[in-house]
Amino acid sequence: MLMVYPPGQGKSGEYLMQLWRRYLEQSAEHEGDVEKQIVAAAYHAAEVFGFLSLSLDRDKRHRDLIEERLRHFREGSRKARGFSNCLVNATFALYNHMNTLSHQFSTGNASAVNLVRGVDEQVRARVQEASQIEGSALALRAAFPLLGLMTLVLGEGTKATSAIRRVEERFAAGSSRAGTEWEYLLNALYRLVEMMQLFVSLSDSELKNQVAQIAESFKDEDQTLDLQLKLRNGFRRLFELGHLLTTHLDEIIPD
Questions:
Q1: What is the C-alpha separation between 245 and 155, in angstroms, rounded?
Q2: Cβ(95)–Cβ(145) under 8 Å?
Q3: Which of 129, 151, 221, 227 could form a disulfide with 199 if both were Cys (CB 3.0 to 4.6 A apart)?
């Protein structure tokens, strides 16, 4: 089930509504072709997280890096052919935007900065010899601790720490059970969705009801055993959560 929300009223509301409409249209257009639906959802997720990092960069400290990563993703989208190529493009764009966001959230925290740097060094070293699916799995597995770091920052001083740790434990357990790169990829994607649910809820309590609706769709569509349908479910929910948060922040952050 695709979630439907009213258009945003913020300064970038028109763009965000166009992004949402395009997401719905492409999902319908590719009905019956799950691979294309996965790519459409993953591309929209990458785009909305890039826009989120841009929106939060009010002092323009990271502007050059963000715009470079946005250009790289869009250029990759024009050139990518085939499901695996498109998936690599989307997942590394997601990783890159999580990397930027984690820098934005960890300013002044030396240990957090070191964690972000260490994750990035590992990714850059391992991706050189990775296959396409290995690269996609590697990108999302690296994105997870970055989102976890940001969620811990938001949840500091609240009761959310135990919930965050439980998601981290499920990530570790899923990684230990995974026998293929597809399973590593799916585990990382699902845990990203779960962590993002916490992240959005912690960002503003007003969003909890809408997060709960997305979580219900996530649960409903997870009844299938088909891996591709699960991937579609995960990328859809990740986009919807990212879009929900970005639209809300666009309305409340002053120019």
A1: 16
A2: no
A3: 151
pLDDT digits (tens, 9 = 90+) for 29-82: 999 999 999 999 999 999 999 999 999 998 899 999 999 999 999 999 999 999
Tokens of 133: 């699916």
Q: Phi, psi (5° rounding) for residue 60?
A: 60, 25
Q: Return the half-sphere exposure (C-beta side, CA atoms, 13 A cut-off) of residue 210.
A: 24
CA distance 120 to 116: 6
165 to 63, 64, 143, 158, 212: CA distances (angstroms) = 32, 34, 16, 13, 19
The closest of 56, 135, 63, 151 to 94, measured between CA atoms, is 135
Q: What distances in angstroms separate CA 215 from CA 7, 69, 142, 219, one per listed residue?
A: 21, 29, 23, 6
Supply 176's token pair.
Answer: 């230990």
SS (H, E, C) 105-165: HCCCCHHHHHHHHHHHHHHHHHHCCCCHHHHHHHHHHHHHHHHHHHHHHHHCCCCCHHHHH
**What CA–CA distance (Å, rounded) separates 235 from 172?**
20
Quote the pTM value: 0.94
Residue with tokens 């024009």: 78
Report helix angle 181-203 to 132-155, nearest 10.
20
Give the Cβ contact number of residue 230 at 10 Å: 19
The DSSP element (H or E) to which 21 belongs, if any, is helix 13-29
Give dist(CA 80, CA 93) in Å, integer.
Answer: 13
First-to-last alpha carbon distance for the chain, in angstroms, is 34
Helix/strand/coil for 40: helix
Distance, in Å, from the CA atom of 195 to the CA atom of 173, rounded to the nearest integer, reads 15
